[in-house]
Amino acid sequence: MQPFSKNRPFPLATCLILFLGITCLSFVAPESRKKVVHLFNGKDLKGWHVDVPDMDKNPALNSPFIVRDSLLVSLGEPRGHLITDKIYRNYRLEVEYRFSAVPGNCGVLIHASKPRALYGMFPQSLEVQMEYQDAGDFWCILEDITVPHMDKRRGPKENWGTTEGKARRIINLTNGSEKPLGEWNTMAIECQDRNVKVWVNGELVNHGTNCTADRGQIALQAEGAEVEFRRVDLTNLSY
Questions:
Q1: pLDDT tens digits along 119-146
Q2: CATH no. of 35-236
Q3: Where are the domains of the chain?
Q4: What is the mean pLDDT of residues 40-61?
Q5: CB 235 within 8 A of CB 35
């Protein structure tokens, strides 16, 4: 066997193998970076913090957010938010949830920033509604977003706004996307730059553009009804 020399060309077969190997690596690398982050680990609320205004006044109050039977549970009262410690941008968030007892209200807040910015309760954010039979509505909380036919879905333009007393609700595109009470629903929220898409049980229910924020914390609500979450997963869409 001849020793390797920098002046000696690689055999054709060797060059072909190297080329194919590099090509395959460049093809699979983006997929390999789509790592799913389990924001809820099934054991505790590590990575989250609770913001409940009533607990400031009465520290003896129990938190409305607990882990029970490997589920993240929002008890609904006292009202407030469970907020990620980290800020996220360009991601797909998937949550599996159900109203375990009676139907009611809850929501996922994206691009959350300033705490208690609205009514001394809600952080500045864009809410993706989970209220029973209204899942997928947008609620603007000192952030805004644009959707097609907004005059029909938000009301008269002169009433639009993001603060108290303004038309902050943008109704979703569909009816009947949710499963019967007690069954598990899947909500997917895709945030890419300033665009936001929402699916409920695989059906596209909302799509907005020109959101006034493109990053922030993620929050779950306690808003009067008990809701169980068995999965809160985030996939990074940035490469």
A1: 999 999 999 999 999 999 999 999 999 9
A2: 2.60.120.560
A3: 35-236
A4: 97
A5: yes
